[in-house]
Write a structure and sequence with these properties.
This is Methyltransferase like 25. Pfam families: Methyltransf_32 (PF13679). It comes from Poecilia formosa. This protein is an alpha/beta fold. Among the domains are: about 210 residues, Vaccinia Virus protein VP39 (Rossmann fold); about 70 residues. Helix content is about 45%, strand content about 10%. It has 22 helices and eleven strands. Helix 7 runs parallel beside helix 8 and helix 8 crosses helix 9. The radius of gyration is 27 Å and the shape is globular.
Length: about 575
Amino acid sequence: MKSSCRSLTEIHRWIDEVKRFLSVTLAIANAHTVEFYTHDVWKRFIAVTPQEVLAAVSSGSEQEGEPEHKQKEHSRTTFGFCIHSNRLVDIHELLVAAKAQSLPGLGVCVSRDELLQSLRGSESECAEIADKLEPDEFMNSKKSHEVQCMSKVVACLAQHCGVKQVIDVGSGKGYLSSFLSLQYGLQVFGIDSSSINTHGAQERNRKLKKFSRAYQKHSKAARTQAEAQSSPQTETVERKPGPNRDRDALAGSGSQQDVGASVDAPAAETQSALGPEAGELFLSALSADVIQPPSPRVPPSQLSARSRGEGADGVFSPLTSYVTSETELRDLITELEEAVMVGLHTCGDLAASTLRMFVAKPELSAVCGVGCCYHLLSEEFNPNGQGSTSDYVCTACGFPLSQYLRDQSCFCGRNARMSACLALERVSLGQGIQMESLFYRAVLHVILRDHYSSYKSEKRVGNVYSKAKSFVDYVRRALHRLELDDSKLCDSDIQSYHDAYEARMDEMHAFNMLKVTLAPCIEGLILLDRLCYLKEQEDVSFSALVQLFDPLLSPRCYAVVGLKSHST
């Protein structure tokens, strides 16, 4: 396989371009919405009206043929910000620059199809990887899209490297792991720090195995019947299964022998031979798992070095462990051979740890990781001296990862990383931000400043908005949560704050739309840093940023893919 066409020099140039843009604009992303009115954020950063911002954002940034006086003003602005006041004076210039400094604008990424073509070499090489199960039978549409797209890439990586094992880091409920094992016959080790997730993944995989077995039996019976009908010379033998045998298998009450049965069935043995009733039973059997709420993450101090679920002798083995870049994988997985390491929406520092493990462990031939939760990344060069916002003590910070940005002491800031989690594509289609809750919180901060000396308390208001019936109710619930006396304020006093700031709600709306506009650029810097890190490694022969998912379905849609030299 040929090495990536993106050279380290090109990546450095792209990083420099994005950094220069963010050096001017990052202050907007780092402004805290809670302090929007107490710090008069709009006046500090913006010199145009909220209506101008909202109109420009809604109409798009491709404004052709700007007025001549606007073009002349560009000499006094940088990315739309006045070089003297450092305030935004040209929204169109900012929007054009933001689009140009995003990953699509830079032209950094390769498509999923391009990656698959490179891995395959020819269309026929991977032809044996065919669809057997439809993931939307047991997942919601978003997860189905993610698992289907990523699993094909992972399977092709494994085939390209000649390996049969996959390590799924941060495997959660085991959707990707189960699908890889059942669909492609790979031996998958799913590692998650939550024992609840591990148990749930194990139980889900057990049910999937039963239904995979049921699919095979029904497909085989259907083919046998079809062959008998098409061949008049063949003697028809009536099949007499045991009482309720097939029905019980579909309903999820098969024997232990069915549970452990092989799933390496021919591609022709699909669920197409089953009727709609079987599909409904499939969903019914898994519905309890699908609606299970996410479990809290377990700190490493409360985890054993290894906690393995029962029935781990199958092709999918869920493991409970907290992993970092220093984790010895062979201590967790004694039967480990060469493997592909994957992570679907690995949270915070785990995405960076996955890449560090790939580089450090000779048994890892390839990596494919999609990160998320950028606000939980720890930063090495935080000027406030604070690291990760998670509860875990990290041994290596998640940003920056590359030596190139570490040499520059690059720093983003938590609020900017929080902004990077915003979904521009969804907001652009009207799936906007819940502005009222943000407005309530910002006005509450004004009340805390005016009437309570502890308004800078470390205590959190939490999700009070969803339970509040009005602004007055919201404030009273918030004061109780903060353990403050709300009797000093009557309802009319509280409502007067709402009425006073309501006219300025457009300012907050417009400001948050600017944050959304900057989100792809901040995410781009984080991902370019990860790509740069792989490019810096001598034994990594191929590395790329790949758009795996439709951003409307899955906003965190970019994967970092790498291959070791001996794998190409």
